[in-house]
Write a structure and sequence with these properties.
266 residues, alpha/beta, Rossmann fold, 2 domains, six-stranded mixed sheet, six-stranded parallel sheet, SDH_C, oxidoreductase, NADP binding, shikimate dehydrogenase (NADP(+))
Length: 266
């Protein structure tokens, strides 16, 4: 029986099984099963796991380990510096980063055919990296990074490779002016981090990577002012579509997988 699973710690909250198993059911892949494992030592786990496991979704704290352990690394995973996907191949484990596909899917829902050139990115942690990749692919050239400390040095090599111009600001600056000047806002930080800045920031379309609980306060404020919003559940779904196809070789049944995710979130 072919199997796949999500790996990380903690992992009990993961909605990946709902997405992937929903896809298997839709395509009547009755021999496939997707599970989850609480894992902190990725190499030790992979060295003992059975050959029936053909692919793994990888979440924190294992995304960097997945990249270094893999025998083959996709160009985008190498560029971003982390991997959320491992696929068993004849030549060993192949690492990929499908968070990039998740970002593109969320941006497509948020923006439609609009071609953005400027963005405000809130947060400079690990999720910021695939977000920068997705923004560049959508045509953004200038990104303002709002963070409590200046971490541009960590993001600069990626930004340079993507052709992005970055500038850093902190929460002490004129956030209203910045938010009004950009084509979209992407938040990668916990909702509580923005509690005292919501009215200042909700001045443009918002993609918030948080999805539980949904809607987030930032998206509520933005929607109240008439701006489009999209949540992290759309990113989660789209990154899973790509994983599903890499694991099974079948086109992901997107409508059914998204319905399974929404049911799990309800």
């Amino acid at each position: 029986m072919p199997r796949a699973a999500v790996l990380g710690s903690p992992i009990a909250h993961s909605l990946s099984p709902a997405l992937h198993n929903g896809g298997y059911a839709a395509l009547q892949l009755e021999d496939w099963e997707y599970t989850k494992f609480d894992v902190t030592d990725l190499p030790a786990f992979l060295e003992t796991v059975g050959e029936e496991y053909l692919g793994f979704s990888v979440t924190m704290p294992l995304k960097f380990d997945a990249l270094t352990y893999a025998d083959i690394v996709s160009e985008r995973a190498e560029l971003i510096g982390s991997a959320n996907t491992l696929v068993r191949t004849d030549d060993g484990w192949r690492a990929d980063n499908t968070d990039t596909e998740g970002v593109l899917g969320a941006l497509a829902e948020l923006l439609g055919a609009t071609q953005p050139t400027t963005a405000l990115l809130i947060g400079a942690g690990g999720t910021a990296r695939p977000v920068l990749w997705g923004l560049a692919k959508r045509g953004v050239t200038d990104v303002t990074v709002l963070n409590r400390s200046d971490r541009l040095a960590e993001l600069r090599p990626l930004a340079d490779a993507l052709g992005l111009t970055l500038r850093a600001i902190t929460f002490t600056e004129n956030l209203v002016g910045v938010a009004r000047s950009v084509d979209l806002i992407v938040s990668t930080v916990p909702s509580a981090a923005l509690d005292s800045h919501l009215t200042q920031l909700a001045k443009a379309p918002v993609f918030d990577v948080i999805y539980d609980p949904w809607p987030t306060p930032l998206t509520v404020y933005a929607a109240a002012d008439g701006f489009a919003t999209v949540g992290g559940h759309i990113m989660l779904a789209h990154q899973a579509f790509s994983q599903f196809e890499q694991f099974t070789g079948h086109t992901a049944p997107r409508t059914e997988m998204l319905a399974a995710l929404n049911a799990a979130l309800a």
